[in-house]
Amino acid sequence: MSLDQVILNTLSEQKEIDSLIFASENGLDHQKLVGAIKSLLSLPKEYIKAEQKQISVWELTDEGKSFVANGSYEFVLYSAVTKDGILQKELMKMPNAKIGFSKAMTLGWLVIDKKHEDGPTVFRKVDDATDVVKTMLEDINTQKKVDEKKIQDLKKRKLITPVVTKFYLVTKGTSFNTQIERPEADLTADMLQDGSWKEKSFKEYNFKAKGAPITSGYLHPLLKVRTEYRRIFLDMGFSEMPTNKFVENGFWNFDALFQPQQHPARDAHDTFFISNPEMTDASKLPADYLEKVKSTHENGGYGSTGYNYDWKISEAQKNILRTHTTAVSARMLYKLAQQEEFRPVKMFSIDRVFRNETLDATHLAEFHQIEGLVADRNLTLGHLIGILYAFFKKLGIEKLKFKPAYNPYTEPSMEIFSYHPGLKKWVEIGNSGMFRPEMLLPMGIPKDVNVIAWGLSLERPTMIKYGINNIRELIGHKVNLNMVQENPICRLNKV
Q1: Which of 375, 378, 382, 343 shows the shortest CA–CA distance to 448?
Q2: Residue 412: is the preceding peptide bond cis (ω within 30°)?
Q3: Going by C-beta distance under 8 Å and a sequence separation of 6 or more, which residues neighbour residue 480?
Q4: Distance CA 87, CA 180 (A)
Q5: pTM for the complete prediction?
Q6: Which of 125, 285, 300, 435 has the most CB atoms around its CB within 10 Å?
């Protein structure tokens, strides 16, 4: 017989049920009995009424239970003292001797002879003693009444602890019946056909219930941080460059940037080369511009001596996975140079690049590069520093300093450092510079136009923002999908 049926049958014979007493008398689990009461209360008809009550009782702690089993510390210590006495140093070797000795002395059970010939010796001061603490704990354990002052003493000694017990007083409801009519959860086709729905009761709709979670995609933390950076660029009036060419040729990735063909970055240990198709058709490269780039590399020009080597178009035709988004910047600047009238531009890109790196906690063979550039007449290094302060201020970074650096396609070049208050040191956060005349002038960019640019990675700020120490936990097959589903919204401390 179910517990709810037991409750109804009992109420048909008696006026009231005390859930605590009823559970104790019938050997029932009180929590299960409470569950049955709540089940009856949830029915549409009022079969029962229940009033919640609570009582506070004292319960023995583990230490209190050990007192009941073995006696209090003071009584155990008293019992160890013989009529002939015992050396204090031997007595104090017993477990919990310090507490027991102090209590026994306070109760006047023991006395110490400090002038004894064998050394300080403890004797019994009374012939007999009663373990009052153990007796009180036994009374509490059997729910007998104990003086309130004594209760407080036991509480201070952490021998007892208060426990609040909740229970129900159950009486008959307005629709009391020993036969339970369960409400229907669904209206079925059979009920509609035979008309039985007219005689049945139905569960009420819970319009506050949460719906089943919908299976859907989730935004990766990188995408969230990328969105914030993109918004900052757009807020500053920049336009986004198209970055849909993962496969690039050596000409736009290296040669157009005045990077020599013998540069170490163009070796297989740094760059991924494509095997099929291995080469770009030379006819797809702008012929006039290609000749100017070749001449600049071989013989110099525009105030430069060049690199003085035999430039080969076969190297420029090799297809690679782009190593930086600056290849996109080169294409866009060349396109800008072909316009009849120059117009200043501010452009940015955020996308994936590929390098043949050794994989570790902070490096992968592919990562995202953030790049911004401004092209206008008579720009200077001061303009670059000013726009960097404006850009990073929107990221919540205001402490910046710059260090001279070298890049093949920018001069001057600067590494960007920010003070990290957590690490309490300056950390590198990006690179910057002004594109060289050897890169810009062969494109057809006017001589009085300068281009300032800067770049940083997307992964490093994302790892800092989300507290990820290993980049392989952010990207790749080791990513925890729960992290992708549960990571919070990205909010940069923009100013």
Answers
A1: 378
A2: yes
A3: 473
A4: 75
A5: 0.56
A6: 435
Q: How far is CA 7 from CA 29, 31, 34, 42, in A?
A: 14, 14, 11, 15
Please give the pLDDT value at position 159: 92
- At 143-159, the pLDDT tens digits run 788 888 888 999 999 99
Q: What are phi and psi of 290, to 5 degrees?
A: -60, -45
Those residues of the chain that have pLDDT short of 50 are: 495
pLDDT in tens, 201-238: 787 778 888 888 888 888 888 888 888 889 989 999 99
In this predicted structure, what is the pLDDT of residue 490? 64
What 8-state DSSP symbol labels residue 201? -
Pick left, alpha or beta for residue 44 (phi over 0 → left; psi -120 to 50 → alpha; otherwise beta). alpha
Amino acid present at 47: Y
Q: Could you give the CA distance from residue 232 to residue 246 in angstroms, rounded to a whole number? A: 24
Tokens standing for residue 431: 């690179």
Structure tokens at 192: 């509609």
What whole-number distance in Å separates Cα of residue 182 and Cα of residue 194?
19
Query: 347: helix, coil or strand?
Result: strand
112 CB-contact burial (10 Å; exposed 0-12 / middle 13-18 / buried 19+): middle
Which of 492, 246, 265 minimizes the C-alpha distance to 393? 492
Q: Are 458 and 393 in contact (CB under 8 A)?
A: no
Measured CA angle at 138 (ends 136, 144), to 5 deg = 75
CB 97 within 8 A of CB 77: yes
> Which DSSP string corresponds to 432-455?
EEEE-HHHHGGGT--TTEEEEEEE
Residue with tokens 């007892």: 160
Q: Which helix (H) or strand (E) holds 17?
A: strand 17-18
Closest residue by Cα to residue 40 from 28, 52, 49: 49
Q: Do you find a cis peptide bond into 437, omega within 30 degrees of 0?
A: no
Angle made by CA atoms 192, 198, 204, in degrees to the nearest 5: 95
Output the pLDDT for position 492: 62
> CB count, 10 Å around CB of 136?
22
